[in-house]
Amino acid sequence: MKTKLKNIIDNKWNYAFLLPMLVLFVMFTLYPIYNIISYSFYEWDGFGPLNKFVGLRNYKEAISDPYYWKALKNTLVFAASHLLFQAGISLLIAVALNNTTAKLKNIYRLMIFLPVITTTSVIGMVMAMIFGPINGPINMALTELGIIKKPIMFLSSPDLSLWSTIAVSIWKNIGVSLVYWLAALQTVPRDVYKAAKIDGANSVQTFWRITLPIIAPFGLVIALFAFKNGLYPFDIVKTMTNGGPAFASDVIDTYLYRYAFNPEQSVIKYGFASAGGIFFALVVIGITLIFNGITARVQEKNK
Fold first, then answer.
1. Bond from prior residue into 217 cis (ω within 30 degrees of 0)
2. CATH code of the domain covering residue 222
3. Which of 59, 114, 154, 297 could form an SS bridge with 131, CB 3.0 to 4.6 Å?
4. Domain membership flag for residue 25
5. What is the pLDDT of residues 107-157, one digit of tens each?
């Protein structure tokens, strides 16, 4: 006991500097989580006291709603697309820009990263106009070139609306993964490349046999970040399609927003939205545990 007390006294300034962060963490993370869990057991419209306890009814309604599962499926498709395409395409771009002989590579890096620092809602509104069926530049260009005879309904087609928002979201966030990949590529010794060149290895062989195995541990983290980006696409979906048409591009964020905050709903179901959010959080935790298990196995295999 005395040893622990002495340790606290010796590190009192360390704890003092951590205290503000801890207070903010409790206020803006733990307390809201506690409240959301509490709300999920009540029928509540966001106003007044919590006086109508319904137990697990909100959870039962959420998991029995087919539109909830549709939104969950779309969200997971969104996240999986980010994992595959954002992480994959950014890796290829990073390898190209990491070439010491590449010209204007800094300008290309800036151009690719620029959408990252642009407000997502602004990008969503601009892209909604670009994908427009009448005056949208994409449809106008395709029509002028004779590739299509009638406009493609990128945002109003149930088959294309989700993939159109996914494409824009990946384009917006690809710069983040690019920065991480470029940092990972800096860890590969140049001497290894020189030795491979002397041995007669071409660019493809060098990438698969040298570059990729060395940066693989970084790739797991980058893939996780890309997956996380795809789990919360509210801004893009809200501004481009609002979850339509007929909920074809609906994701968990827009689904919960309709019930918790949208005044167009006849009855605001804050407790129901809270239950849906908690269930989604459990799904994400389960996916994270699986991903951590895969990561641990890969790292153990590489030892």
1. no
2. 1.10.3720.10
3. 154
4. no
5. 888 899 999 999 999 999 999 999 988 888 999 998 888 888 889 999 999
